[in-house]
Amino acid sequence: MNINIHHASIQAVPADALIVNLFEGVERPAGATGAVDQALGGAISNLIALGDFKGKLNQIAVLYPRGAIPAPRVIVVGLGAVADFSPERIRQAAAGAAKRARDLGAKSIASTAHGAGTGQVEPSLAAQAVVEGTLLGLYEWTEHKSKKSERQVESFTVVEFDPNKLDAIESGVKAGAIIGQAANFARDLINQPPNLMTPTALANTAQERANRVGLKCIVHDAEWIRAQGMGALLGVTQGSAQPPQFIVLEHTGAEGEPLVFVGKGITFDTGGISIKPAEGMEAMKSDMSGAAAVIAALAAIAELNLPIHAVGLVPTCENMPSSTAYRPSDVLRAKNGKTIEVISTDAEGRLILADALSYAAELKPKAVIDLATLTGACVVALGENVAAGYFCNDEALARKVEAASQATAERLWRLPLYDEYRDKIRSDTADVKNTGGRQGGVGSSAVFLEEFTAYPWAHWDIAGVALDKLGATSLYPRTHPPHSIRGGVGFGVRALVELARRWSSP
């Protein structure tokens, strides 16, 4: 989709649909909405007076100007109460309005940067949010559909009347396009079926994207993994015919110690010998959502040319049952020398992360953040499509994570690293065991990972937010807002990029 900026009065723009907004409780439109209302002879004011449009969040009305302005349609979207306004509400409103325009057959749409005119949100942030929301809302996964919809938005224009705001709007539009497209790229990776998104395919895709955006990418094979002493990763992969890969992405926008992101890359998880139930196993193609987020975020960091040294590490393999698969009671030796008793082969993600986290120590990082669809226990604790759980061993890093989460509305809820969880992973035959059982499983998985860290570190358990089984729906508007889509969510991409942007700021 072509994304651009236009300096004009929005009512003069000849798009297939114009998008303007209204706050809840407003009786007379002002700004760009007021200008459109005046051009339409008070049509928007009439909707308000009749009580047909109240400006509630994501409420939408469609008006047909009948030649009064160049655009054949005007879409009015509600922003909710002024007191509750935020960039996330801009994303939601933009997504809902863009989807309605597409469903009406609009090929070109034009919108204001919601909130920028009233000063509720800084112009560049408003522009970024409206572009992000539009891209997220219009996303569709149709690669393997024989028949594709002809209703596609081909161009999106952000319109700004005030010349003094154009530079800020342009900056926001650029950032929003890069970040929104990165999140959608992660969705593509997650949605790809596992016979096509193998570890080798994931590595090839990462290499292609890196070449496109100017990232350094090195893909290591099983021989290198063995030479590194990554026995935990080799243990998980030994049951699969697909060879493992270890992907290293690097952006050198600055010198010094790197900020490191680590993504769990299990391209399909059967549970191995501790096999999962057949019902719902198809969702396990999303077990590489952490890897997808890291690859996409590093690509966006490179495209934004952030002044930061950032590294992405992605251990990737399949977890399959076979005559060569690893077994419960096997003992594996991780890269840092610690031995691990395998209790469940379905607790495989923490094993491949153990080796990646140990490797990260050799980079002498400023901080390390890992993302993983790690535990069902986290889903039980926080619910589906509500929030990811996170753990952190450093207060300064935790504050940065919280700020990035709040700015992007990718919710992260901090959970404790209690020493009592360590009792659950004590082993009689090795240094640790790979699971402490169902009770407190999210906590024991986190302290297991901490065994392989020696630096400021945060672990994001994204199991409950990686996959959306419903997509946007009016039945559950809070957990499935207009920018959600059925399938891969791409959770973590925007928060990781925001974390890197804040880290690189003086």
Task: Walk me through the topology.
Blueprint: E1 2-7, E2 17-22, H1 31-39, H2 43-50, E3 60-63, E4 74-78, H3 87-103, E5 108-112, H4 123-138, E6 155-160, H5 166-191, H6 199-213, E7 216-220, H7 222-227, H8 231-237, E8 245-252, E9 259-263, E10 265-269, H9 289-304, E11 309-319, E12 331-333, E13 339-341, H10 349-361, E14 367-372, H11 376-382, E15 388-392, H12 395-408, E16 412-414, H13 420-424, E17 432-433, H14 441-450, E18 457-461, E19 467-468, E20 487-488, H15 493-504
Parallel strand pairs: 1-6, 2-4, 2-5, 5-6, 9-11, 9-14, 10-11, 13-17, 14-18, 15-16
Antiparallel strand pairs: 3-4, 7-8, 8-11, 12-13, 15-18, 19-20
Helix pairs in contact: 3-4, 4-5, 5-9, 6-9, 8-10, 9-15, 12-15
